[in-house]
Write a structure and sequence with these properties.
mainly alpha; 413 residues; flat; 18 helices; two-stranded antiparallel ribbon; Arc Repressor Mutant, subunit A
Length: 413
C-alpha cells in the first residue's frame, strides 16, 4: 500500500526550518542583510521554488550587488555550496560532526586514496596538536580565540584537508598583510588546500612564484599609468629586469618615472632606461636586487619576533602569574572547542560561562601588567613600519614607502 501527503502550496501556510546551529553560531556575526538573503532563499528551497538575485533584491529592498555579496559570504562561511547557478544549503549539524564533506573535499579524498601512504592528507590532529595550533593563532592575532573561530579552523581540516602547518602559516601570512579576519584567513587556507600546499616549503615556493611576482606586475603597471593587468610579453620583460638584470624595485620605479615626459609611455621605453642604467651604474639610484631587499625584510621580522619573545620571557620572570593566566586561557579555549563540538544540554550556558572566565582572566592580566608598569602591548611584535608590517608591500599590492630606506640599509650592510 502506498502513501501520499498533501503538500502545502500556499507560501505563508508553510513553515521553514532553521537549524539552531545557524542561529547560535552563524547568525550573530553575519551582517543583517546577509541573514535576510539566507532565510528568504531557505524558504524558497523548502518550497521547491527558484528565485533570482534580482527577485531577491526586490523582495528585500536591497541592491543586486548586496545579494551577491551575501552569497559569497555564506559560501565562504561554509553554510552553502555553489555549483554554477545552483546553491545547496549545507546541513550545519552534519558539517560540524564530520558526517558530510563538500564535493571538493570528496575529490581530494578520492584522488589521494590511490596514492602512497606518505602522500595522503594527514589525519585530524589530536587534542595536543590542536591546542598548540590554537596557541600559535592567539600569539599571532594577539587575542583569545573564540569557540566559533575554533570551529572554523576545525572545518578547514575536516572539509578541505588543510594541515595544521598550512593553517598556522596562513595566519602568519594574513597577519603580515594586516588582514586577520577569520573569513579572510579561511579564503587563503582553502586556496592553498585546493592547490595541495601542505607544508611551509610548498607555500613559500608558491608565494614566491605567484603572489609576490603578481604584486610586482601590478605595481609596475600602475606606475606606468595603466589600469590593467600586464600582458604575457610585458611579464617576460619585467621578469628579465628582476631575474637577469637584478634591478631593485627602486630602479624600476625610477625608470617608470622617466616616462612622465613622453606622450605615449610604454614598457619598451622603461626597458631601454633600465638597460642603460645597468650599463652605466652611475645613472639612477644605486640599489640592490629585489631579492636582497626582501631577504633583509625577512631578517627584520625575525629579529622583531625574537625581541617580542624575549620581552615575553622578561614579563614571565617579573610576574609569573601572567604566564599562568595565559596557560589557563589556553585551557579554557580547549574546553570551548570540546563543548562546541560535542554539544549536549546547556551548551550555550556552558560556553558563556567559559567565555566569562576567559574575559576575567584577560582583565586580571591587564591589571597585573598595569600595576607592574608594563605596557599592555609590551609583548606584541613591534614593526618598524606600520603600513606594511615590515614586508615591503602594502595591502593593495603596492610597494611601501619604507622600501627605499630598507634598500639603502641593505646596500650598506
Amino acid at each position: 500500500m502506498g502513501f501520499t501527503r498533501e503538500k502545502i502550496k500556499t507560501t505563508y501556510l508553510a513553515d521553514t526550518e532553521v537549524e539552531n546551529l545557524f542561529i547560535g553560531e552563524y547568525m550573530p556575526d553575519a551582517p543583517s542583510d546577509h541573514v535576510k538573503v539566507y532565510l528568504l532563499a531557505l524558504m524558497c528551497a523548502d518550497l521547491g521554488k527558484s528565485i533570482s538575485d534580482e527577485e531577491t533584491a526586490k523582495t528585500l529592498h536591497l541592491g543586486v550587488p548586496e545579494v551577491q555579496k551575501a552569497w559569497q559570504y555564506w559560501e565562504n562561511a561554509g553554510a552553502v555550496i555553489r555549483t554554477g547557478d545552483v546553491i545547496e544549503f549545507v546541513s550545519l549539524k552534519e558539517k560540524l560532526y564530520g558526517a558530510k564533506k563538500d564535493d571538493k573535499a570528496k575529490e581530494r579524498a578520492e584522488s589521494s586514496a590511490a596514492a602512497p601512504e606518505e602522500n595522503k592528507s594527514p589525519l585530524l590532529p589530536d587534542g595536543a596538536e590542536l591546542k598548540e595550533l590554537y596557541t600559535k593563532i592567539e600569539m599571532m592575532t594577539g587575542k583569545t580565540i573564540s569557540g566559533s573561530e575554533m570551529q572554523e579552523v576545525l572545518s578547514w581540516m575536516t572539509d578541505f584537508g588543510a594541515t595544521a602547518e598550512t593553517i598556522a602559516y596562513a595566519y602568519r601570512y594574513c597577519s603580515e598583510k594586516g588582514k586577520m579576519n577569520v573569513r579572510y584567513v579561511g579564503k587563503v587556507v582553502m586556496d592553498w588546500a585546493g592547490k595541495n600546499l601542505d607544508t611551509k616549503e610548498q607555500i613559500e615556493a608558491h608565494l614566491g612564484e605567484e603572489d609576490q611576482r603578481h604584486y610586482t606586475y601590478q605595481r609596475i603597471m600602475k606606475a606606468l599609468g595603466f589600469n590593467r593587468f600586464a600582458t604575457e610579453m610585458e611579464k617576460q620583460i619585467i621578469d628579465k629586469w628582476l631575474d637577469e638584470l637584478s634591478c631593485s624595485m627602486d630602479d624600476i620605479l625610477y625608470a617608470c618615472g622617466k616616462t612622465s615626459g613622453i606622450s605615449n609611455p610604454n614598457i619598451n621605453y622603461v626597458n631601454s632606461v633600465l638597460n642603460n642604467m645597468v650599463k652605466r651604474p652611475g645613472k639612477g639610484p644605486a640599489g640592490v636586487s629585489r631579492s636582497q631587499v626582501m631577504a633583509y625584510y625577512d631578517e627584520i621580522r625575525e629579529n622583531e619576533e625574537k625581541e617580542a619573545e624575549d620581552r615575553r620571557s622578561e614579563v614571565y620572570a617579573r610576574v609569573p602569574r601572567i604566564r599562568d593566566i595565559e596557560n589557563e586561557i589556553i585551557g579554557l579555549n580547549s574546553e570551548l572547542m570540546k563543548i562546541a563540538i560535542s554539544g549536549g544540554s546547556g551548551k550555550s550556558a556552558r560556553l558563556e560561562g567559559i567565555r566569562a572566565k576567559a574575559a576575567d582572566l584577560s582583565r586580571e592580566k591587564t591589571m597585573l601588567m598595569t600595576e607592574n608598569n608594563i605596557p599592555v602591548d609590551y609583548m606584541d611584535v613591534r614593526h618598524i613600519c606600520a603600513l606594511c608590517g615590515d614586508t615591503g608591500v602594502k595591502e593593495d599590492g603596492s610597494v611601501c614607502s619604507c622600501y627605499a630606506e630598507r634598500a639603502r640599509e641593505a646596500a650598506d650592510r
